[in-house]
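Quick one: co-fold with MGD.
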Amino acid sequence: MTPIRHEGANYIKTACTRDCPNTCGLTAEVIDEQVTRLYGDASHPLNEGRVCTKCQRYLDRVYHPHRAMFPLRKVAGDFRRVPWNTILDEIAERIKDVCDTYGPQSILYYQGFGERTALKLLNRRFFNLLGPVTFLKGTVCGGTGQASQDMDFGNRISHDFRDYVNSGALVVWGRNPAATNINLVPAIKDVRRRSGKVVVIDPLDTKTTAMADLHIRPRPGTDAFLALAVARIIIDKGAEDAEFLLNNCDNYQQYKKLVYEYDIKELSKRCDVSEATINELALIIMKNKPVGFLLGWGLHRWQYAHTSIRAIDALAAVAGSIGVSGGGVSQGFEEYLPYDWDVYGDGLNPQAKRLSMPRLAEELDNLEREGRPIQILFVTAGNPLVMLPDSNAVRKAFERIPFKVVMGHFLDDTAELADIFLPSTTFLEENDVVASYGHSYLSAVNQATQAPGQTKSDFQMFMELGSRFNFASEYVKPLDEWLKIILRPTLKQGFTLEQIRDGGFFQPDVPHVPYTDKRFPTATGNFQLMTSLDWYDSPDDLCCVDPTQPLPSGHYRLMSTAPFAWLCSETTPNQFKGTLPVTLATGEAERMGFVQGDICLATSPQGQIACQIVCSDTQRSDLVYIPRGGWGQRGRNVNVLTKAIESKVGCGTAYYETMVTLEKLR
Ligand SMILES: Nc1nc2c(c(=O)[nH]1)N[C@H]1C(S)=C(S)[C@@H](COP(=O)(O)OP(=O)(O)OC[C@H]3O[C@@H](n4cnc5c(=O)[nH]c(N)nc54)[C@H](O)[C@@H]3O)O[C@H]1N2
Ligand SMILES: Nc1nc2c(c(=O)[nH]1)N[C@H]1C(S)=C(S)[C@@H](COP(=O)(O)OP(=O)(O)OC[C@H]3O[C@@H](n4cnc5c(=O)[nH]c(N)nc54)[C@H](O)[C@@H]3O)O[C@H]1N2
Ligand SMILES: [Mo]
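Sure, here it is.
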């Protein structure tokens, strides 16, 4: 939307830095030093003036009366305001003490996903300059998909989404762009306008499934069987892309063996999709070429997620979608591509210890048991107490850490547990640069308004903290100087910081349609077709019940996916009234004796939480849906229920491998 120009208002071009694949270009309207409205930047080539609900509501968060504005120190259980200098002195002294007494490895730096801009590389650099402090490995977000696609393509590279104007069909697989990535919605509508087909494959009903020609609801976690079944039908019909499969792929014979291991009836039973629907999907794929496959993050949340993702990659190879305009299997983009990764400083400490993010509580417990407990926890841009799995275990592990520093915007669950809280600016109050995990445009973050209260950017805080250490002369530099260093690889190509500040540009090295030459950065240069479904080789290894089998009566798979109305745990205090909702199939509710509005207790081996029943006539009967991101302070944290296990590939988090039961409370 083009801003309606108000007299006396300033309009600042900037970009949204929140944890979302849109990374929209924005225009901030500023009146009397206050941002009064956020518009989509009409000149931004990707969002073209669009913004989503989350962005429209963001100002409520920025100007919320509960936003944290002052540095705080906990004294006898209560936070007290302390001047910046005093608090930074205390942190620096404590760090030096701990380094001398226990060594830098007893400091844990936890970097959340809240803001991933260029200057954030310097956070990790600060810790690396201290020595081999402890970092995290793995991810609660997208590691599994990337690692799985790297196995097939050598390097995961997605299609620019404007390439979908060339698609005959889109298969949106485990992704909900109508909530999570609005800039894809025009592409979906465009395919349908051109009489192409849109299929959405999602066990849940979402705003995106409502836009589909065909919505398929497989048994969650079993998409590999659906993909194999469709591939089998295409191969049976002789409609496979034989040229690509024979000339540009490895393992075609083994893959074919896998495709023919089970008959369609068995495959249909395992993924719980009817044979008629499987045929319909196969027909759509054969008739509407080229087919673009779009994978989301929901698909990653399983122990064996890689089997689903690799089976979809292979299906795309069978369908003739790889290296073809309008095709591809697209998921995410490398959001740190434009930067010089040396700035992280990881090279200084190749031996630094890394704790598994998905299993952080267990890792902390192990260190404790070994007599090497973490002494200082430093959290930036994350709310691990709410967003990591198994929150009760995370809380217990964090409580034992003697000194915790949290930087953020609100006194959320994690901040409440801190000994020291440092108030951060929002992106509206910062100068920076941001790339995206949803496209390859580099955008400017231009400060729209002054930092309120005593808030400081992470950059400022780390520079001021860094000035208290003996590495100050190499670490403490003006913002522009650091940006020029971080952006070295991009500036080397002839771009300037001023050009970025002016709005940004596409990164020149990123192809809009990857792999058109059908050469892949794998060991042989060929696309790698999967050869086995590993989990069936080792059923004992399953962390929970076999996903292809029906669940015991009264047990449900817990889906805790991204909500439409807010982003991760970036809610505002008092945004929610009433009990946390749990959506259950109407038939199942009747069978269990529940009615809409009943309050029940959801229980898993990890924990319990009170929920209010919402009935759905279309939802699968073997799962329940509870939105993620609610705070424990308000009794809305779904992660008290979730299991902390890693995915087999990519060290991702298998949140949805959690089974719950429901019991009526009153
Ligand atoms: N409004 C909003 N936008 C967001 C976010 C938010 O919280 N709210 N979060 C942001 C973040 S951090 C991320 S990573 C992205 C996530 O973006 P998306 O991937 O689009 O969102 P998710 O809800 O994680 O997952 C998408 C869908 O996958 C489905 N799914 C889960 N398991 C399976 C399965 O086994 N098979 C199939 N076929 N489908 C499955 C879920 O039901 C869900 O509807 O969105 C970003 N944008
Ligand atoms: N049950 C369940 N849990 C999940 C998922 C799921 O599907 N199900 N999905 C997961 C996914 S996809 C993700 S990405 C993670 C997200 O996990 P987190 O990154 O821990 O979650 P957020 O709620 O986004 O927390 C970000 C925090 O950073 C703050 N922040 C924003 N910008 C800045 C900044 O510049 N500086 C500082 N210091 N703070 C800032 C925000 O105010 C917010 O409090 O959660 C995961 N958790
Ligand atoms: Mo994420």
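If it helps, The chain has a mean pLDDT of 95.
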